[in-house]
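Researcher: I'm comparing several assemblies side by side, and this is the next one on my list. It has 951 residues spread over two chains. Same procedure as the others: predict the full complex and return the structure.
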Amino acid sequence: MAVDITLLFRASVKTVKTRNKALGVALGGGVDGSRDELFRRSPRPKGDFSSRAREVISHIGKLRDFLLEHRKDYINAYSNTMSEYGRMTDTERDQIDQDAQIFMRTCSEAIQQLRTEAHKEIHSQQVKEHRTAVLDFIEDYLKRVCKLYSEQRAIRVKRVVDKKRLSKLEPEPNTKTRESTSSEKVSQSPSKDSEENPATEEHPEKILAETQPELGTWGDGKGEDELSPEEIQMFEQENQRLIGEMNSLFDEVRQIEGRVVEISRLQEIFTEKVLQQEAEIDSIHQLVVGATENIKEGNEDIREVPHL
Amino acid sequence: MASAAAATAAAAAASIRERQTVALKRMLNFNVPHIKNSTGEPVWKVLIYDRFGQDIISPLLSVKELRDMGITLHLLLHSDRDPIPDVPAVYFVMPTEENIDRMCQDLRNQLYESYYLNFISAISRSKLEDIANAALAASAVTQVAKVFDQYLNFITLEDDMFVLCNQNKELVSYRAINRPDITDTEMETVMDTIVDSLFCFFVTLGAVPIIRCSRGTAAEMVAVKLDKKLRENLRDARNSLFTGDTLGAGQFSFQRPLLVLVDRNIDLATPLHHTWTYQALVHDVLDFHLNRVNLEESSGVENSPAGARPKRKNKKSYDLTPVDKFWQKHKGSPFPEVAESVQQELESYRAQEDEVKRLKSIMGLEGEDEGAISMLSDNTAKLTSAVSSLPELLEKKRLIDLHTNVATAVLEHIKARKLDVYFEYEEKIMSKTTLDKSLLDIISDPDAGTPEDKMRLFLIYYISTQQAPSEADLEQYKKALTDAGCNLNPLQYIKQWKAFTKMASAPASYGSTTTKPMGLLSRVMNTGSQFVMEGVKNLVLKQQNLPVTRILDNLMEMKSNPETDDYRYFDPKMLRGNDSSVPRNKNPFQEAIVFVVGGGNYIEYQNLVDYIKGKQGKHILYGCSELFNATQFIKQLSQLGQK
C-alpha cells in the first residue's frame, strides 16, 4: 500500500524555511516569496494550445451533458400516451439530432485545426509528440460521445420501424426473427435507414389504402345491398390473393431492411479501414517516389563509370 | 454471504501481479483509485521514471495501456527533457542521490505544471528536505501536488513469480554474496537491499508472513533483518503499513502465509541443469528477460549475388504477456507438446481463414444467380460476423507467428547442441539411476554441445556424486574438458563449495525419477510440419521434486524431516522477540512464498508450479534475488573460482 507523505513534505518545507531564516540564507523565496511566485508564473508561456484544447473538451462535455439530459425523453417511445412531463415530439427529436450533428462537426473541425497549428510553432520533439497524443485523446473522447448520440438515434429508428410494422392492417403474427438481426446490427449512419425504411414501409400501406377504396367503389358500383354468394366468394378469393401479395411484399421488405442495416454497418467498417489505410498508402507513395529517384540517380552514376 | 467469502478468499490469494498493477494504475491516476468511465473527459499527463521504475512497469503495463491511462509521454529521468507547459508530471523513481538532484533540477527549470512524486521505496527525511529546499528556491512548492512512498521495489514477472531487481543485480548476485573477500559492511548493504525489497513485497501483498529459514546461511541473515523490520513497523501503531484498511482482502484469510527463505547453496545443480519445458528453454537458450525475448533472424539460405553486401540479420523482439493465451497454456509444457500445439493452432487458424475466403467467393455470385438470393441474406449476417471477427483472427495469427519463430529458434539450438541428450543424461545423474553412456564419452564427443554444455554436465555430475571421483579420474575429466575448450575455473569453486557443504550437512538428494523416451513416432513427425524433430528424442518428464520444492513441502505440510527440522522460526507478530525452533502453528499452510537468496531460475519455478497444481486451494509464490540462466551462472562461478 502506498503511503501519502505529502503532509510530511509540507512539514519539511516549513522546517527548511525556518532553518534558512535562522541561518539568514537569502533565497529566491523569503519575504517576497509569494509575490515572486506570481511573477514567476505570468511570463511562463501559458500555452495557447492547451487552453484551446481544454475549450474543445468543455464543448464536447457540454454536448455530452445535453445528450444525456434529454436521453430519457428521446428514447421514450410511447410519449404520446404518457403524461405531459417527459413528452417529446418528433420535431423536437429531429431538432436534437440536427443540433448534435452540427456540434459534432464543429468539434471535429476544431480538432483538425488544432492539429495543423500544433506543429507549426514548436521545435521540440517531445512537445510535438505530447500534443499529438493530446489531440488523439480529444478525438477519442469525441468518438465516445458521438457513440452516445448514434446509439440513441438507432434506438429511435428501430422504434419507428417497429411502430410502423405494428400499425399495419394485417394482424397476422409475424414472428420472424428478422427483427433480431435488424435490431442487433445497429448502424452508425441511421439516417440512411430512416430514409429507406419509411419509404419501403409506406409502399405496402399505400397499396392497402388503394385497395380499400377499390373494394369500396365496387361495392357502391353494384348498388345492391347484398352481394350474391358467387360475388362474395370472388371477393374472398381476391382478398386472399391480396393478402398473399401483401405478405410476400412484406417479407421482401423485411429482408431488404435487414440487409441494408448490415450493409451500412459493413460500409462503416470499410470506411474506417480505408481511412486507416490512407495514411499508410501515403507513406508508401512517398517511399516509392523516393525509391524511383534513388534508382534514377543510381543508373546515372553507373552510366558515368565507363567514362572514368 | 458464503460466495462473497469464497470470492474474497480467492482474492486473498490474488496474484501479486494484479496487486502491483492496481497499485501502479492508482499511482498513474494521481494517486486516486482508477475507475473506468466511458464518457469521462480525457486527462493527460507525462510519466517520468528511472531505470528501476522502467523495469517494474514494463512487464506489467504495455505502452497502449499507458496511453489508456492518459499518459502522452514516458521519459527517462536522466535524459534531456524539454519543458512542456500545462502538463502534470508523475515521477516514479528510487530515492537515490542522483535522482533527487535531477528532480531538484527539474523543479528549478520549471519543466512542468505540477509534480506528483512517487518513490519506489521509502525516502529518508533528509532527502525529502533536499527536495523541499529546491522547491522553495524555485518557488515551486505549490506545484508539488503529492508525494508518495509506493513500496513497489520488486519486479513481478508472472502471477506468482517475482524478482528483486534487474538494474543493480550485480550488487545482490550470487557472486556478491558468496565471494570470500566480502567485508562486513558490504554484506550489510547487500542484505539491506534484499530486505528492503522483501519488505515492499509484503506491504503490497498486505500480509505479515511467518518466516522459516535454514541456519548458518545468508538466508538466515535476511530472515533476521526482515523479521526486525516487520516487527518495528507493526509496533509503530501510527505508521503501520499493515493496519486493517490497508490489508484489504488479506484480512479475510485466517491463515497467514509462510515465507521460506532458502539459500542458493543448498542446490547448485538446478541452475546448471538443461531443461525441457518451454519457458525455461527460452530463458536458457535465447535472450530472454523481463518477459521479452530477442531473436536474431538468420537470413536464410538464399544465394546473394557475388559482391553484394552481406545481408543484415533482422533483430526481432517479442513480448510474452499474460494476454498471450498460448503462452499461458504452454509455458510449462515439454517442448514436443509445444511444437504440436503450435501446429494445431496453425491448422485451426487456416480453417477459419478458409471460411472467410469461402464467404468472399459466395458474395461474388450475388448479381448472377437469382436462386442464390435466398441464401444471401443469411450470408450477409455471416459476412458481418466474419468481418467483425477479423481483428481476433489477426491477433491469433500474430501469436502463431510469434510462437513459431520462438519455437523454431529454440529447436535449432536443441538440434545443434543435442540438448535432449544432455537433459536425459543429467536427469539420470541427478536421480542416481544407472548411466548407459560414460560421462567421458559425452564430454569428448565433438558434436554434442558447446564447451559450456559439457562443463554444466560435468559440474552436475560432480555435485551429485556421493563420493568424489578419484584423482586419476578427475585428471582424465579435466583433460577432456580442456580439450573440448572449457574453462576450469568453475570447477575450482565447486570443489570448495562441496567441501564446505560436506561439513555443514549432507548434500541434497534429488529423488528418483525416470524419463521415458517415447518410442512411437509422434504426430509432429508424421505431418511433415515445420518442426521436424527427427533425431530429437520425445522425452516425457516425470514429476520429481527438486530440493527447494521438497523443503517447501516439508515446511508447508508440517512434515517432520531431518533436513528442515532445525530451521529457525520467526513470527513478527509475536510479542516475544526470541525465535523458537518449535513452530506455534500446527496446521498446514495454505499459502507460501519461497524466496531464494542468491538467485533462482525458471526450472525451480516450474517445479513449484507443478507441485502445487495437485493441491487444491493452495498457492505458492516464487521469488529470487536475481534471475539467471546457466550461462550467467557459470560466469559467476568462474569469477568465484578465479580467486
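Model: For your comparison table: Residues 48-168+253-303 of chain A form one domain.
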